[in-house]
Design goal:
Layout: E1 2-3, E2 6-9, H1 13-24, E3 29-32, H2 37-42, E4 48-49, H3 51-59, H4 64-69, E5 71-73, E6 75-80, E7 83-88, H5 89-93, E8 97-99, H6 102-115, E9 119-121, E10 125-130, E11 138-143, E12 146-151, E13 154-157, E14 175-190, E15 200-202, E16 209-215, E17 218-225, H7 236-245, H8 249-254, E18 260-274, E19 277-278, E20 281-283, E21 289-290, H9 298-319, H10 323-326, H11 328-350, H12 357-372, H13 374-385
Parallel strand pairs: 1-12, 2-3, 2-13, 3-9, 6-15, 13-20
Antiparallel strand pairs: 4-8, 5-8, 6-7, 10-11, 11-12, 14-17, 14-18, 15-16, 16-17, 18-21, 19-20
The protein binds flavin-adenine dinucleotide and P-hydroxybenzoic acid.
P-hydroxybenzoic acid binds next to loops.
């Protein structure tokens, strides 16, 4: 029967990044992905990376293209009451965010894993996880018409919100916290130059809009829409008209439109499961938490989980000490809840929740206060670029990994 040290379920950004970091630290792992490689590569999602995420990607040795192709943004704009206000991230934090698509992150990681001969299995069907409450976890899956069993020391559930890992935790062993928002984001991608050099988050009486980008020639735009909206109701012309109406006049005039190359609707939700660890199963990234995309935190939070887990596992395999993995859930949840709070707050400030004009006036008053207060701007900026990490140094050092214990004493 096949055996590995860590079975990684899901080849989204968190699974691939964890796999790559473990590999660089000499820890054997297998990644099982339900979808095809093409499907995973084609999903258009996040676009903004915190500096901490960029650091981790560099540590994972997948930073070359990122460093040469990313757009570094020292600030972003808030649109409201017909005007645009720039939030200077650099001034308040000394840092900047990077615009680099999740599709590119996923591609860089997939290429690196495959070039290193990784066991990365796409189209794995009927994945199930077992025995993680004891010393001998096992993953079962079918591939190429055969059923396979994979024994492992640990399972990393990196399989997203709809994955199998969280659903495999026994009833009563976890608690979920959830909030649904009464709207979604309709997003389009178009090969037109972005309307501005930096992102614009726009509060408008008709609803929220976001101007983002993937490159100097590719734009990503979103408008808030009702949850039951269908894509067929949104031909390109309607989208561009609605976007224009939600932007400050000067910005709307500068908008360059063109045919969309992708269009999708995403619901907005906040979700956290506690704890993140069940015996030898760790939930990572969207499998454990979802935030509305307004704060650009989802992918960055996933990377932050990976950082803590890979450090804990590396310590464990190098020294036999389990303090790091024992603290995984608690350490990650502290950051997660702060990001959940920030994403909820930023969503509440910028979106239309009802027809109630009183609520809109309150939002405008808060935006007026925020943009006039150094303290409030500093708080927004430090949350947006990403809060600092707890210090636990653990650099890739494959040569030190020869002392790997084969039968882990953990629990
Ligand atoms: P996923 O990307 O969901 O990957 C999980 C993987 O597991 C998938 O490949 C899936 O196919 C696989 N899988 C599922 N079930 C199984 C199974 N049973 N067996 C095997 N494999 C399985 N985040 C940001 O940080 N910044 C942004 O700007 C941003 N913008 C966003 C905009 C939109 C419109 C949306 C929808 C999201 C945005 N996010 C953003 C969030 C970000 O995309 C996610 O947080 C991120 O994809 C999480 O990565 P993950 O690897 O944890 O999960
Ligand atoms: C994106 O470019 O897709 C994007 C950017 C910022 C966000 C959310 C999404 O807050």
């Amino acid at each position: 029967m096949a055996r590995t040290q860590v079975a990684v379920i899901g080849a989204g950004p968190s699974g691939l990044l964890l796999s790559q970091l473990l590999y660089l630290n000499g820890i054997d792992n297998v990644v099982l992905e339900r979808q095809s490689r093409e499907h995973v590569a084609g999903r258009i999602r996040a676009g903004v990376l915190e500096p901490g995420t960029v650091d981790l990607l560099l540590q994972a040795k997948v930073g070359e293209r990122l460093l040469s192709e990313r757009l570094v943004h020292d600030g972003f704009a808030l649109g409201f009451a017909g005007r645009s206000f720039r939030v200077d991230l650099k001034r308040f934090t000394g840092d900047a965010v990077s615009v680099y698509g999740q599709t590119e992150v996923t591609k860089d990681l997939t290429d690196a894993r495959l070039a290193a001969g990784a066991k990365l299995i796409f189209d794995a069907a009927e994945v199930s996880v077992e025995g993680f409450d004891g010393a001998h976890p096992m993953v079962r899956y079918s591939h190429g018409g055969r059923t396979h069993e994979l024994n492992c020391d640990f399972i990393a559930g990196c399989d997203g919100y709809h994955g199998v890992c969280r659903r495999s935790v026994p009833e009563g062993a976890s608690q979920s916290f959830e909030r649904f928002y009464p709207f979604g984001w309709l997003g389009i991608l178009a090969d037109v130059p972005p309307v501005a050099d930096e992102l614009i988050y726009s509060n408008n009486a008709r609803g929220f809009a976001l101007c983002s980008m993937r490159s100097l020639m590719r734009s990503r735009y979103y408008v808030q829409c009702p949850l039951d909206e269908k894509l067929e109701q949104w031909p390109d012309e309607r989208f561009w008209d609605e976007l224009r109406r939600r932007l400050p006049a000067q910005v709307a005039e500068a908008l360059v439109t063109g045919p969309s190359i992708e269009k999708s609707i995403a619901p907005l939700r906040s979700f956290v499961v506690e704890p993140l660890t069940f015996g030898r199963l760790f939930l990572v990234g969207d499998a454990a938490h979802i935030v509305p995309p307004t704060g650009a935190k989802g992918l960055n939070l996933a990377a932050a989980d990976v950082r803590v887990l890979f450090q804990g596992l590396t310590e464990y395999y190098r020294t036999g000490r389990s303090e790091g993995i024992d603290r995984y859930s608690e350490q990650c949840l502290r950051r997660i809840w702060k990001a959940v709070r920030f994403s909820w707050w930023f969503t509440s400030l910028t979106h239309k929740f009802s027809e109630d004009p009183f609520s809109h006036r309150l939002q405008l008053a808060e935006l007026d206060y925020l943009t006039g207060s150094e303290a409030a701007l500093a708080s927004l900026a430090e949350n947006y670029v990403g809060l600092p990490f707890e210090r636990t140094d653990c650099k890739a050092a494959p040569s030190e990994t020869s002392a790997v214990p084969t039968a882990p004493p953990h629990r």
